Amino acid sequence: MFLKLLLTALVIAGALLTLRLRSQRNMRHYRSPARVLNAPADVRQGRRRITQLLAAGTVVLMLVGAGLYLYHQWSDAYQVVTVRVIDTRSARVTTYQAYKGDIDGRTFVTTDDRVVTLAEVERLEIGPE
Q1: Global pTM?
Q2: Of the N and C termini of the chain, which has fewer Cβ atoms inside 10 Å?
Q3: Which of 77, 71, 83 has the alpha carbon at shortest distance from 128?
Q4: Which pLDDT value is given to residue 79?
Q5: Model confidence over 1-17: pLDDT tens digits?
Q6: How far apart are CA 69 and CA 33, in angstroms?
């Protein structure tokens, strides 16, 4: 959850920075067009290079963040957990092992490929292996 918030904040900050830099560049252009046009080629090329590096760095950071998020989701889904099914009428407890990603509402698939669907009077508890 924290990574989602951080990624969103970085995208918003990048967009605001881009808008601010564009508006400053446009204001300078309207104030003294001769100075901007007569700026040395080295300065213009240096600014362009810095902008390209910042953009590339942002894209790389976003790709790394997305990759880490996807890996975390994948590894979490393949974590083996203990599933306890409790019958509320008789208080009988049945224990199963299942992957966390295979639990979907009132149905889950155990590690030995049995599909278990809970009745209305049964309760599901998930715990560590």
Answers
A1: 0.55
A2: N
A3: 83
A4: 93
A5: 777 888 888 898 888 88
A6: 46
